[in-house]
Write a structure and sequence with these properties.
It is built from six helices and 15 strands. It is of the alpha+beta class and 355 residues long. Among the domains are: 67 residues, no CATH class; 83 residues, Efflux pump adaptor protein, beta barrel domain (Elongation Factor Tu (Ef-tu), domain 3, Beta Barrel); 63 residues, conserved putative lor/sdh protein from methanococcus maripaludis s2 fold. The strands form four sheets. Strands 3, 4, 5, 6, 7 and 8 form a six-stranded antiparallel sheet that branches. α3 packs across α5. 6% of the residues are buried.
């Protein structure tokens, strides 16, 4: 008989049982011999005595007429054996398929674990990058807030603000001075406004280089402010610049002037920063002389003359000049104190020459 396992049998169970019964009946011919051996005393008496009833029942079954059994169906038996072999083969294939499926599943699991690890690493790197961007954006915001705060300048004391001149707006060749306005582009170090201290009033003036050698710090001066007519203010020279600067506002060719600073000795509530004024500085004192404006002196035939008013006409009067400045000149002869002279040349029909 074939060694069979129950998990391999399945559909061939009925054929196997039929095969086992037929095989047992084919072997019954050997049983009388075994019984005869037991009867004649080949077994010990004690064993024969003990097994007597069993042997009696076995003898009766043997003596009974044999039951005829149909011969087993050989093709059916072979088909059952093939089915058994097929079941074994199918089980190996299924086992191999299961093993391959397990390996495939394990490979996919490893791939998924690697993908999860890679995604976690990528997410951590992305999170770190976003954190750095956030920190940079926060730093930029704080810097912008500090910049906005720096744009607000707070005066250390209360007072009146003086808006300064925007030299770049007046053009490269000078011209009319223009103050800073909202929307103008400034440059590093540009002075836009100033908060003057009105407890002391200073005058910034220009000094011609021809007069630089005749002035010194501490000299007295007289100041006339255009906004306050009919009044003169006493002042003293506070400083004189060491180097001359080109003044493009005076036209072409530009003049070279020294910066002159004067301090007013008295303060008037009407004085405001930015007002225009003229300073007169006495470089020398000469008693008992006649002064005429410098612009009233003209040249005729190589000699200085003035046009003196006589009624409704102007008389051409030669004069002798002792000393001449930028604004006035000392006349030794030709005019007397109190006489009026023209500061611009009159029309030809209004000039009367002396004979």
């Amino acid at each position: 008989m074939l060694p069979l396992s129950f998990h391999h049998v399945r559909g061939a169970a009925a054929d196997l049982r039929q095969f086992v019964v037929d095989d047992l009946f084919r072997s019954r011919a050997a049983l009388p011999g075994c019984l005869e051996r037991l009867v004649v005393g080949e077994l010990p008496a004690a064993q024969a005595t003990d097994r007597g009833p069993q042997l009696t029942r076995l003898a009766r079954r043997i003596a009974a007429p044999p039951v005829r059994r149909e011969q087993p169906d050989v093709p059916r038996f072979q088909r059952a054996r093939l089915d058994l072999n097929k079941g074994d083969t199918v089980s190996r294939i299924e086992n191999e398929q299961a093993r391959l499926t397990l390996n495939d599943t394990e490979q996919k699991l490893q791939e998924l674990e690697a993908k999860v690890t890679s995604d976690v690493t990528a997410n951590e790197a992305d999170l770190a990058g976003k954190k750095r961007k956030r920190e940079k954006a926060l730093f930029d915001l704080q810097r912008a807030e500090r910049g906005i705060q720096n744009l607000q300048l707070r005066a250390p004391a209360a007072g009146m603000v003086n808006v300064l001149t925007n030299y770049r707006a007046s053009g490269p060749w000078g011209g009319q001075e223009v103050e800073f306005h909202e929307g103008d582009r400034a440059w590093p170090g540009a002075a836009i406004m100033e908060l003057p201290d009105l407890t002391s009033v200073h005058l910034e003036a220009r000094l011609d280089e021809a007069d630089r050698g005749r002035l010194k710090v501490g000299q007295e001066a007289t100041i006339r402010i255009e906004a306050i007519p009919g009044r003169e203010f006493k002042a003293t020279i506070e400083r004189i610049s060491v180097l001359a600067k080109v003044d493009y506002s005076s036209g072409w060719p530009p003049a070279r002037n020294f910066e002159l600073g004067l301090l007013l000795a008295e303060i008037d509530p009407k004085i405001r920063p930015g007002m225009s004024a003229v300073a007169r500085i006495a470089t020398d004192r000469i008693p008992d002389v006649v002064l005429v404006p410098s612009e009233s002196i003209f040249q005729h035939d190589g000699r200085p003359i003035v046009y003196k008013l006589d009624g409704s006409d102007f008389v051409e009067q030669p004069v002798q000049i002792t000393r001449r400045g930028k604004e006035s000149a000392i006349v030794e002869s030709g005019v007397a104190p109190g006489e009026k002279v023209a500061t611009r040349k009159p029309a030809a029909e209004m000039i009367r020459r002396k004979r």
